[in-house]
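Practice problem: predict the structure.
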Amino acid sequence: MFDRVRDFLTRNALGPDPVNYEFGYRVASNPDSDLARTVDELTDGGIRLTRTDIEMLGGAVGIGATPTTESQREAIGQVLVAQTQMQVEGFQDLVANIRSEARDFGRDLAAKADAIRDIGPSVSVSDIVRLTSAMLERVQSTEEQLEAATREADELRQKLEEARDNAQRDPLTGLANRRAFEEGFAEHAARGATIGVAVCDIDHFKRVNDGFGHAVGDRVLKAIAKTLSERCEGHLVARYGGEEFVVLFADLTLDAAHLLLETAREEVSRKRYRLRETDVPLGEVTFSAGLTMARPNEPASDVFVRADGLLYAAKADGRNCVKIG
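Answer:
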């Protein structure tokens, strides 16, 4: 393994400092990973990786790693855009080559057909075999290029889906983000679905951050995100911002959506969180929520405002409850 990492650093003229070595280890230890494939694409043709490339990729695409900061998400987006642009340009060149080959093949085929007609009965079997072989070679060449174009298209589609997923996901909790919620609402509205929207907010979250630090606050956010996702399975749960979550219920009655949300709220309120390192209790952690149903042709922003107003009513009523309306 050391030899493989050393070879990687040597090929890219990188010094053996901890950042470079760790990055080289990730690439060398898992050559089939997304990271290794990305590095292969970036260094295709003998191009060396720069320290900027490593900083962009090192903390964002690792073995089981996910972006945790906005700068890392931006870096991933930049890499995906660059890769997609290169693939689009290559795909365009490939299609242009295939069209040129097909045009030339058509002209050659017509010319050979005319030659056979001109030769008439005097044409020999060897002449026909030679002409046929030439035609088959052109057909095989075109088929190979088409197969390559299909692979390029599949890879491009996968990259675009990956970029779209990154743009719609919250890096901390792994939930959908605000953009995904808005797009999901529009999709359900377009098909005429019954839509319910719940806005949830962690009670006294500032107290957790101020008393135990943002790292502990992040753990609480992840824990509540997990509970909401599990108890509202099949429906879109998104982190709307800060300690606020939104749940998009589709094809459910208000009572059915309320029951799912209450199940999640009760489970969160029953848990007793403790610091992982010292086992010190955090105290009770709860959330409040407002739930409402969208009216026909009502925009997502209006539904959200109504649910948010119900959330504030829940806060005013003592917190750790769900208000519906």
